[in-house]
Amino acid sequence: MEQKIPQNIEAEQAVLGSVFFDQGSIKTVLDKLHQQDFYHPQHQIIYESMKELFQELVMIDYTTLSDRLSSKGMLERAGGMEYITALIEAVPSSSNLINYINIVKDKSITRKIQDTCRKIIEESYNVEFAPDFIDDVERQIVQITKEKRTSDFKEIGGIAEELLKKIANQAQVKGHITGIDSGYAMLNHYTLGLQPSDLLIIAARPSVGKTAFALNVALNAAKSDKKPHIAFFSLEMGVDQLVMRMLGCQAQVDNFNLRKGDLMSQDWEKLHYAVSLLQTLNIYFDDSGTVKVTDLRSKCRKLRQDGKLDLVIIDYLQLLSGSATNQQNRVQEVSEISRVLKEMARELKIPVVALSQLSRNVETRQDKTPVMADLRESGSIEQDADIILFLYRKEPTEGDKTISNHIMVNIAKNRSGTIGEFELLFNKNMSTFSNTRVSNDRNDDEEQYEVKR
User: Fold this and answer.
1) Are residues 311 and 425 in the same domain?
2) pLDDT digits over 90-134, tens only?
3) Which of these is catalytic: 48, 52, 138, 236?
């Protein structure tokens, strides 16, 4: 069976012919199509001459177009006077211009994919390092798919109507969470849950409890009514260590005793119940040492395509590397990483939570409250992140040991809401973060808790 190159001569003719009926249509054509999107050489020549006339503010009609082509010595290559006339008659309906443009664009993209695939097959015979080759293949395909037909601007009236429907649906639910439930009342208060397309950074100094907090968020979210699918990428700890912590958290059994196996009969009962509960949750761990942020994105795309991804958690950002193998500037590399994570959140329409280290600068100050400038190798993290949370311990006053297990959560940036600060209780022996009593009571009496603004 003869294989035909993707093309549609009638659609190409209709696009060019529509310009003669409506001078304003050339703006639409120029916005959406390039010269190479036309397959037939004569159409490329005609399109380029139309573009020149438009840029020179010359009205495009049969006479001006044929004169321009003739002056360039390209009239015959464009099909001659008869072909120009035929274009005018080749338009079924000028009101269908967008549909004609979409047909031409789709055929063009299909041709580019075919050309790229042929190039990839040729290059595959000389591959020296497969991971770089695979990443380059994915980059080339993604670059082409970005050219796919795009929708026109949306009118504010239509957007407002859709939003009104969403607000009405939320009002019927009468809940305070529109995203994924984090399990923490005050965090939900500020964020309304973990929102799709958001990049959330959780930053702290070592040993404050970043990983434990991330595991708690994953566990709480997975147990919520929506039963989301969660991918947890661990670049620092093995999956056995992480699940051990989760078991201790869920069963409320001391981690040290758990590792030793020094357990009482009631502890075993709690553990068996915890295991049976964890088996029902949609949490997937990756401790394979995925270092490149592009590899991580590929894995997430695959999960999303399979319908098994609603939330991504990464522990932690500074252990990722950029796409370049010989990246010299670490700040630029971290900037690329944060940008890719934000793009991934928007592309897959999921919240992405990334843990981050803080620099030692915070230790040298009298006020130990972290600020965004303390983000280690910050680069563009501050710009790309939608929400930035800092975890830190309050400095105890002399003789006061009661706040040693209190962790402050400082929301330093919140693109869609307010900033503020609240406390959580951290039981390190069981890797558990829990709401304080005042946090639980906030919904009943908001004035009981004073939020820093």
Assistant:
1) yes
2) 777 767 888 888 899 889 888 888 888 888 888 888 888 787 788
3) 236
Decide: 311 and 231 in contact? Cβ < 8 Å: yes
Residues 6+ apart with CB under 8 A from 377: 318, 330, 331, 334
Q: Is the pLDDT of residue 333 over 90?
A: no
**How far is the CA of 306 from the CAs of 232, 284, 302, 303, 310, in angstroms?**
17, 13, 6, 5, 11
* Whole-prediction pTM: 0.66
Coil vs helix vs strand at 112: helix
Instruction: Provide the edge-to-edge strand list for the sheet that holds 199-204.
Output: 283-286, 230-234, 311-315, 352-357, 199-204, 387-393, 406-414, 420-427, 432-435
Q: What is the dihedral of CA 359, 363, 365, 370, to 10 degrees?
A: 50
Q: Please give the pLDDT value at position 451.
A: 38
pLDDT score, position 172: 66
Q: Which amino acid is at 384?
A: D
Q: For 165-171, which contacts have Cβ atoms below 8 Å and span 24 or more sequence positions? A: none
Whether 31 and 97 map to the same domain: the answer is: yes
Residues 152, 283: Cα–Cα separation, whole Å: 38
Per the structure, the count of domains in the chain is 2
207 and 347 together in one domain = yes
Mean of pLDDT over the chain: 81
96 and 241 in a single domain? The answer is no
Pair 195, 140 in one domain: no
Place of tokens 């009981």: 448
Active site residue 450: no
* Beta bridge pairs of residue 200: 353, 387
Residue (of 6, 4, 5, 10) closest to 99 by Cα position: 10
Decide if 2 is inside a domain.
Answer: no
184 exposure class (CB count in 10 Å sphere: 0-12, 13-18, 19+): buried
- pLDDT of 260 > 90? The answer is no
Residues 28 and 73 in one domain: yes
Specify the pLDDT at position 297: 84
| Domain span holding position 87 | 9-145
201: domain CATH number is 3.40.50.300
Same domain (yes/no): 299, 443: yes
Q: Give the three-class secondary structure for 238.
A: coil
What distance in Å separates the CA atoms of residue 357 and residue 90, rounded to the nearest whole number? 63
Within a domain: 109: yes
Amino acid at 380: S
Does the residue 403 lie in any domain? yes
Cα dihedral sign for 443, 216, 434, 190? negative
Regarding whether 198 and 140 lie in a shared domain, the answer is no
CA distances from 304 to 61, 190, 356 (A): 49, 27, 24
